[in-house]
DNA sequence: ACCAATGTAAAACGATCGTTTTACATTGCA
DNA sequence: TGCAATGTAAAACGATCGTTTTACATTGGT
């Protein structure tokens, strides 16, 4: 595992578990097992590192959402929370922590959320056989809600969202 | 307006807009218009101040949710985001920023989310005429989802959630 | 008239922040 | 054999962190 991969993985773990602002660079160097000199040579700055973490996470997350049905969309979320745990959306959290004042971070978040929104629209269209932006918005809300409610209600929120989405989809079909 | 009220209001504004960790005490003293000596005499510590902000916000938020129908629940959220804007849930954000490692904050968040969960269950039971924990969970997910999706999709997520909840409720009734 | 309370302004506390630098070790290729 | 690249360890950078302290002003009640 090269230094870039190791650093990005360590950073994602710490930022996700303890927050971006609360994670100091010394904690990061220790977790990544490298000197601060190497870290900065590799990442440039803390904000750039966070942006890279988000871009990498977007890649991994969106890869799981390459599905054809709304049901599979929520099944993918179930897998995700089983693997990654329930700590809410790292993208929204990063943006909120920095008040949207760190351009590199704000841009990575905006790019992800736009891609996510598009993907939900595509899956709904594929599953339903036609575009339905209003339904897609509802599915997006359920997805986002399951993600955040899971923080204090546990993974059951994802099955609740999945069931709700199935009802909405069935109704849209008839 | 006494010092306690002024400080709490200023703190809520800054913590909400820029994040808890990113808000320094000097910024806080300036916004509250008081010396740091008075601030600490009044609040004790930064974490205690955040806990007070959350407790006060819980009071204000829950007061708006004293309704009898699910529709009114989402109407209340519509009012809330119109007044307070769309920056996600301050409770979950605070907890995430501190990794749950600040007891005063973690407790305030847990208390609020438990009260919120109970309230949603009550409103669903009142509206439906009977308890329905599964439906209540779905409504909670929609509420939380509208709150967080609104950060990047705008207030329309609340009407989307409201419409979805109406469909789920109608189906549960027949 | 005076004491106690309550406030301000500002310096200082040690700690930690993100980042850069200095000095040195290892390694792979020409 | 030697140079360039890539790494480490550790000190240092100035800035800022949350918090306490010192010294002083104002004010309301008995």
CATH topology of the largest domain in chain A: Tetracycline Repressor, domain 2
How many distinct helices of chain A? 9
Terminal residue distance of chain A: 52 Å
- Provide the number of structural domains of chain A: 2
CATH architectural name of the largest domain in chain A? Orthogonal Bundle
The average pLDDT score of chain A comes to 97
CATH class of the largest domain in chain A: Mainly Alpha
pLDDT < 50 runs, ≥5 residues of chain A? none
CATH superfamily of the largest domain in chain A: Tetracycline Repressor, domain 2
Series of H and E elements of chain A: HHHHHHHHH
Largest sheet, strands/sense/barrel of chain A = none
Q: Level of helix content of chain A?
A: over 70%
What's the SSE blueprint?
The structure is a homodimer of 174-residue chains.
Chain A: H1 3-18, H2 25-32, H3 36-43, H4 46-64, H5 70-84, H6 90-97, H7 103-128, H8 133-153, H9 156-173
The first copy, chain A, binds a DNA duplex (30 and 30 nucleotides) through helix 3.
Any overview of this molecule?
Two copies of one chain form a homodimer. Chain A is mainly α. Chain A has two domains: 1-44, Arc Repressor Mutant, subunit A (Orthogonal Bundle), CATH 1.10.10; 52-173, Tetracycline Repressor, domain 2. Helix content of chain A is 80%, strand content 0%. In chain A, helix 1 (3-18) crosses helix 2 (25-32) and helix 4 runs parallel beside helix 7 (103-128). The longest helix of chain A has 26 residues, at 103-128. The radius of gyration of chain A is 18 Å and the shape is elongated. In chain A, 44% of the residues are buried. The model of chain A has no long low-confidence stretch (mean pLDDT 97). Chain A binds chain B through residues 17-19, 21-22, 87-89, 92-93, 95-99, 101, 109-110, 113, 117, 134, 137-138, 140-149, 151-153, 156-157, 160-161, 163-164, 167-168, 171, and chain B through 17-19, 21-22, 87-89, 92-93, 95-99, 101, 109-110, 113, 117, 134, 137-138, 140-149, 151-153, 156-157, 160-161, 163-164, 167-168, 171. The structure holds a DNA duplex (30 and 30 nucleotides).
């Amino acid at each position: 595992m090269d230094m870039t991969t190791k650093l990005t993985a360590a950073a994602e773990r710490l930022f996700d578990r303890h927050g971006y602002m609360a994670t100091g660079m010394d904690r990061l160097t220790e977790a990544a097992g490298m000197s601060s000199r190497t870290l900065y040579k590799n990442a440039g700055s803390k904000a750039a590192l966070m942006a890279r973490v988000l871009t990498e996470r977007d890649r991994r997350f969106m890869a799981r959402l390459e599905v054809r049905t709304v049901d599979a969309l929520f099944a993918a979320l179930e897998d995700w929370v089983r693997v990654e745990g329930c700590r809410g959306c790292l993208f929204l959290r990063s943006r909120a922590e920095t008040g949207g004042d760190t351009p590199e971070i704000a841009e990575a978040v905006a790019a992800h959320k736009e891609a996510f929104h598009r993907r939900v629209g595509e899956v709904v269209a594929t599953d339903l056989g036609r575009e339905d932006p209003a339904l897609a918005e509802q599915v997006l809300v359920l997805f986002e809600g399951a993600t955040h409610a899971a923080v204090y209600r546990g993974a059951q929120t994802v099955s609740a969202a999945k069931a709700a989405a199935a009802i909405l989809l069935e109704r849209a079909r008839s």
